[in-house]
Amino acid sequence: MGFQGGTWVNEPANWQMTGDGLHVVTDKATDFWRETHYGFTRDTGHFFAVTTTGDFTAQVRVRAQYRELYDQAGLMVRVSPRAWVKAGIELSDGIPMISSVLTIDRSDWATAPYGHDAGDFWLRATVAAGVLRLQVSSDGTRWPLMRLCPFPKASSYSVGPMCCTPERAGLSVDFSDFTIGAPLGKALHDLS
Fold it and tell me: What is the DSSP letter of 182?
């Protein structure tokens, strides 16, 4: 399963399917966030959601050129507007950071400097038995762990490409190699 059957949460004004890819240019002041630190809730980011049946592994390749604070692109898994995770590259303090925001009523935010080409990377999300495993890859072959955490059990999930620009419009993002299938079931330190 790939982009087929996907629907937009906050459809951007400028987007198109390109062969096996999805091209998006972000609208102004788009974001996903709930309350923590900033005290506001935003549910305006762009998310191309494909519905799964139960547990899954999804992955996507992301290409973008980040310029402004909080420019971000990656993958989202969503149960509801109050229960979701977004992960990817986000520009913060002038450098591209690998970033994840887990939201269960309120958002957290975890970042670390990304030591590879932030303009071209892969993300993988596995949800199985109430656990979320996020992995990031610079080459689509080796998949180091990015985050492991509890995640709500659900009969279905929405998963797919996500991008936001809270401070501007105009981040151009190309998503490709998007797949969703059964959970991989690999050992935690199996990086393949």
Answer: S
Q: With contact defined as beta carbons under 8 Å apart, do 173 and 23 qualify?
A: yes
In a domain, 2, yes or no: no
* 155-173 confidence digits (pLDDT tens): 999 999 999 999 999 999 9
Residues spanned by the domain of 18: 7-181
What is 71-85 written as a DSSP string? -EEEEEEEEETTEEE
Indicate which CATH number applies to the domain containing 52. Answer: 2.60.120.200
Query: Tokens at residue 191, please?
Result: 């990086």
> What was the pLDDT predicted at 150?
97
Contact 84, 100 (CB under 8 A): no
Q: How many domains does the chain have?
A: 1
Long-range contacts of 128-132 (CB under 8 A, 24+ apart): 128/55, 128/183, 128/185, 129/55, 129/153, 132/77, 132/85, 132/102
